[in-house]
Each structure stands twice: as structure tokens, then as C-alpha cells.
Amino acid sequence: MSRNTRSNLSLALAFLMLATGCQPTQPFFFHEDGDLSHYVDVSTDIEFPDVEEPVLDEVTQAQRPLSLKNMDDYEMWDLTLEEATRITMCNSQVMRQLGGRVATSAPDTISRTIVNAAQVTTTYDPALVETGNGQSFGSQFDGVGVESALSEFDAQLQGSMVWQRNDRPVNFGSAFGTFFAQDFQQDLGDFNMGVTKNTADGSTWGFRNATTYDSNNNGNRQTPSDWETNFEAFFNQPLLQGRGTQYNRIAGPYSFDQYAANAPNSFDGVMIARIRTDLTLADFEGGIRNLMRDVEQAYWELYFAYRDLDARKQGLESARGTWQRLNLLYLNELARASDESQAKTQFFQFRAQVEQALTEVFRAEARLRYIMGLSVSDGRLIRPIDEPVIARVDFDWAATSVEALSRRVEVRKQKWQIKRRELELIAARNHLLPRLDAVGRYRWVGAGDELIDYNAPTGMGRFAEGTSAFQSLTSGDFQEWELGLQLAIPIGFRRQLDGVRHVQLLLARERAVLQDLELEVSHQLGDAFRDIDLNYQLAQTQFNAQVAAEREVASVKPAVEQGLLNINVLLDAQRRKAEAESAYYRSIVDYNLAILEVHYRKGSLLDYNGVYLAEGPWPGKAYFDALRRARQRDASMYLDYGFTRPNVMSRGPVSQSMGQPGTIPADTYFQGEVVPRGEPTPAGEPQETVQPTDTGAALMPVSPVQPAGYMETATPRSGNLQNAGYQAPTPQGRITYAASTPHEGQANHAPGPPAAGAGTGGGSFR
């Protein structure tokens, strides 16, 4: 074999060896049957959770939504605004929200619930915060509730029982080998049981028993086994840092060992926990308020959709009559083709507008159904039967501004934040004090051959055979005590000073936010005031435009029929008449929405709608226990400590039926004759008036309709001004919406209008 051949063969073998070594090989297994169904080649996959929850009937039994293709099989459901509000309350465990008026489809309105369900307000939120135990990490309900904070002061029972067997060699010299055992053998038992309690002023008190059994082979013992027991009482009282009820109710207990280790103390005392509950209640109230605004907006938007459809239908009928007449004349060669084509074009334009308006009715009705918690379609078509307000409504600016600053839930919530920071600052300043604790302990000791023996001999040695440890204990011969001071001072107080400065900045920030929030509330209220005046004036202007358009059509039509005017003039007049009527009702609806917005901005919307918020019912046993505790406290002796720490932090419950401050009494709201339904209150001689049209529209006079001395209060939104002495809704007529308690079960869903006096879901009606 030549040298080249050997070289080539060596290179080929080396290449084969390298190629074989780079490829992994599977091992060989005996009894392998080839079934690899358990093999998974991915670490993650999209899967369904093992959860079985019932679906609402409103989802499973929903019918096909109404549309231009499906609008034959339905019946009208005449609905008042009060009924819509009541059904919404029944079906609103989750506070649904609608977008602005530009949002026209349901998917756009529910994206908030689908995308970020954790931020949705529900009836369970106050109870979730109230029952928080600090274990909901990463959740908006993280933190401790009031009961969890109070548990820091509960008595703690601690005990242990340990039995040991020891057997080990002992290194003794030969001189001691005759006196001591070479192997140490022992049976040892320890029992400890005690109770400790943290008090509201920061001290710790306790009582403990320790019992030990010892049996070993030590030859110098009087008896091979003995019992030793002791009872001790001890205390730990902070004198500087951590002392007092004010700090401990704000920050919670803080031990000497924690302070000495420079461990941070999160401020999660009972006062902070209570403020967290108040903040959640403010969010809950805001969610109900927003829900009330959305349902009323949806109601009036549906009202306008019907009115707009009616205006378009009238325009369609006018265009149809004009086209049919011109078409007949054209067939008889009495009209031009261009005129007939223009009339036909306008007819189809109005037809398209009617189809669009009808679809908007279906959409607006679906939005109202969504906010009410009903199915997308159930064979009924909601039709609002309440008429909007057409009378002039005036608010007193000064009184309304003061009311807005006192009733807006956002302002109240921000003030709770300021109170929280003020309390945290008090606790943070307490950390600038050194930790000095007074400690004490007193112990009773007893020992003997037996633990308990009522017939134990007396006058013998302490460990003589038959003696009792408890008898020795009760004799009081062996007593021990301890008194002292513990001191811990962080040199420089760096962490403590930084904590105080941090809370001071937080407090300054919250105060600045409150000032800006009050300024924003004032501007929002000013915008709402402008909208009321604007929309009322627009309603008058649009009414005049409607009257002028009707007169134009009435005057132009005979002239066109006589050939004195071109057909374009009549077609334009008919189009302007339809647009003017639609614009008039748009301004009327906007005027009512502006009134709604004023109540929303000044914080009286729930009172305006007759909605009252209350806590849900507790179990009957809870009321029984609370009554027993109240009677027990009433029978006890009251000790007047002179002051309470911390100081008063709440001014009492919020009045939910404050009415309108600064308004005229109810018996003077209207001066003069009460106007029947559907007619405006006369205010001087109007410039122009016409009779109501066939559609039943309530027309508005040109001059402002403002009775002398009239000021709007918490009156209903109906335009039927029948009772001049109308009072605010009584508690029997309110809708009571209850937040869930920690013991409340899941509520039912109301599929339709509830019976009078009955409530389901989160609300009850009284």
C-alpha cells in the first residue's frame, strides 16, 4: 500500500470517527414496547382551565339581535327611566360602563371588563378589602383589613412538648471512674405552655408554665429522676419608641427585636386598614354613580333615536309624495325628467336615512340593554315613555359649588388619602425616638420526685423519694424576679429620618392633588353650567328653525305645484324640515343630559335618582352577638380617659339625601298657575308659538321659560310638571343598593323588570 493511499485512508477514518462522535445516540432499553403516548415535546401549551361555571340565561337564551334583516318578530316594551334604573340595580354585581355617545356598538363598551377585569368595580370590593389578610399579593385587594389588623392584638396561646433520649460516653479520668458513670444515659422531657398578648399601648404581657422531667444515671443524685416546674408572669413596656395607643393603632405592634434589627415596619394598623375600607367604599360609590349616569344617558339616547327615526320617516313620506306626483306628471309629459330624477334621488336619500336611523334605534336599544344587564335580544324592543324636561332649570352657582366640594366622591376620597398620610407621618416621627423598654419577670419554682402527689411527705429533702414538684411550688419557698431596661439606638437614625421625609413628601403631594382636584371640580361644574344654558338656548333656536321649516314647506309646496318655483326649492325645504326636527330633539336630549351632568359634577346624582347605598345584610347570628356585646357594654362601668388617641379622624356618615343647599322651599318652586302636561310654563308673550305636531312633540316657546323664583332641586326628570309642591323622594321610594358583606352569597340575575317591592342581585327595594 502506497504512502498516499495510507494517508487518504487515515483521513477518511478520522473524518468518520469525528462525524460519528458529533451525533447523539439514544440508549437501549429492555422491554421497550414503543408506546410514547405520554411523551410531550413542548413545555407550555394553550389549555382550558378545569372550571365549570353556569352561564347566564341572558347569554345562552339570547335571540338574534334586531337588524334591518331581522325586525319582524318583536313586541314593544314601554319602559320608564325609573324601571330602567331599578332593573340596572338588580343586575349590576359588576359595574358596567358605556363609552361616550360616539361608541355605537356593544363590543366597544365591554372591552374594559374583558381586558382588565381586575380594575372593574363590583359589589364585592368593599368586603374584599374589609377581609384582606395581606396574602393577595399582586392584587388590588392586597393589604390587611380591619379584622386582620385587630388580630395583632389577639392573645396567642403557645405550647410545646418534647421528649429526648440521650446516651453518650463521658470522658472521666480513672480517679473519678468509681464515682461517675462512664456512659451518660438520660430521659429528658420538656413541656411549655403560655399565653401572650399585645396591648393597644404597645406593651406585651404574658403568663407561662415550664415543666421538665429528668431521669439519668448520675450516681450523685438523691433520686434517679426528678420533676421541675415553674410559673412565670412577664411584661415588656416601651417607654419611648412604640409607646402609646396612637402609634400602635396606626402602625401596629413593633417589637424590640424588630427595632434593634433595624427592620422596617409597614404601617398597617387598624386605623390605616379602616381608611383603606373607606377608600374602597368611595370607589364603590363612584362606580354606582357612573352606572346611574350611563343608564340615564343610554335611556335618553334611545329616546332621541326614536325621535330621529320619526323625523326621517316624515321626510321619507314627504319625499315619496313629491316623487309620486312628479313621476305621474312625467309619465303624462307634464314635468321634466330632471325634476322627477331629483325627487327620486331625494326619496332614496331619505330612505337610506330611515334605514340608518332604524339601525341606530336597534344599537341604542342594545346599549341600554347592556347597561341594564339584559340579553342582547329577547323578542322585545324597548321604547322609552318618559318625556324629557323642557322647563328652564337654574342652579345657584355659589350653593352648587359648595355642594360639589362637599359631596363629590373624588374629593372625599382624596381627603381620606390626606388623613392616611397624616397618620403615617405621626407613626414615622415616632421612629425617631430611641427604643427603651422596661422589662420584668416574676417566677414561682417547684421541684420534687413526682410532679403531682397530694400525699407527698413533708419535712424531707426537696428531691426525696415521694416529694411533689407542685407541692414545693405552692409552698412559695422558691421565687425569682427580674426587672430591667432594654435600649436600642440606631446611630444617626438614617432610615428613620428618610422615612419621615418620605411621608412628608407624600402628604405634600396629596394636598397638592386635592387642591388641583377641587380646581378641576370647579371647572367641570362650570362647563356643565354652560352646557345647560347652551342647550336650552339651542333648543329654542332649533324650535324656531323647525317652525320656520314647516312654514317654508307649507308656503313652497303650492308655489311648486303651480309651477311658480323650481322643484329644487321644495326638495331642499323638505330636507331642512326633517333636519330641523331631528336637531330640535337632539338639543332637547342634550339639555336633559346637561342637567344630568350638573348633578353628576356636584355629587348629587344618586340622590337625584333616588338611589340609597347601604351595607348588605349579615347573618342573624352576627346581629345577635352584636346586640349581646352592646348590652354587655351598656351594663359595664364607663371610664372617662379624657381623650382618645389618635384624635377624631371621621366626621360621621355621609348624608345621602342632603337636598339642594340654598334653594327655595318646595312650596314656592312655582309661582302662578300650574301648567298642564305637555305645555310650557308661560313667561310673557312669546314671539312665536305653534300647536304640537302630529308626532306629539312638545314644542318650546321662543322666549325663555323660567318661572319666577324657580330653582331646580332633586326632582324627577319627567317633563310632566303636575305638582308644584313636589318633594324629594322619600326613603320608601328609594332604590337601596347594598354592597356585599363578607358573609353574602352570590346574588341572582334579574332577566327582566322586577316585581314592585322585590329585589334581586345586589339591590333591594324599600
Automatic annotation (TrEMBL):
Q: Which residues form the signal peptide?
A: 1-24
Recorded GO CC terms? cell outer membrane; efflux pump complex
Extract the ranges annotated as region (Disordered). 675-694, 716-766
Q: Which UniProt keywords apply?
A: Cell outer membrane, Membrane, Signal, Transmembrane, Transmembrane beta strand
Which GO MF terms are attached to this record?
Answer: efflux transmembrane transporter activity; porin activity
Composition-biased stretches (Polar residues): 716-725
| PROSITE patterns in alphabetical order | PROKAR_LIPOPROTEIN (PS51257)
User: By its UniProt entry, which InterPro entries does this protein fall under?
Assistant: TolC-like
Q: Where in the cell is it found?
A: Cell outer membrane
The record's PANTHER family line, in alphabetical order, gives: OUTER MEMBRANE PROTEIN TOLC, TO APRF-PUTATIVE OUTER MEMBRANE EFFLUX PROTEIN OR SECRETED ALKALINE PHOSPHATASE-RELATED
Its name, as the record gives it, is TolC family protein
Which species? Answer: Aeoliella straminimaris
**Source lineage:** Bacteria, Pseudomonadati, Planctomycetota, Planctomycetia, Pirellulales
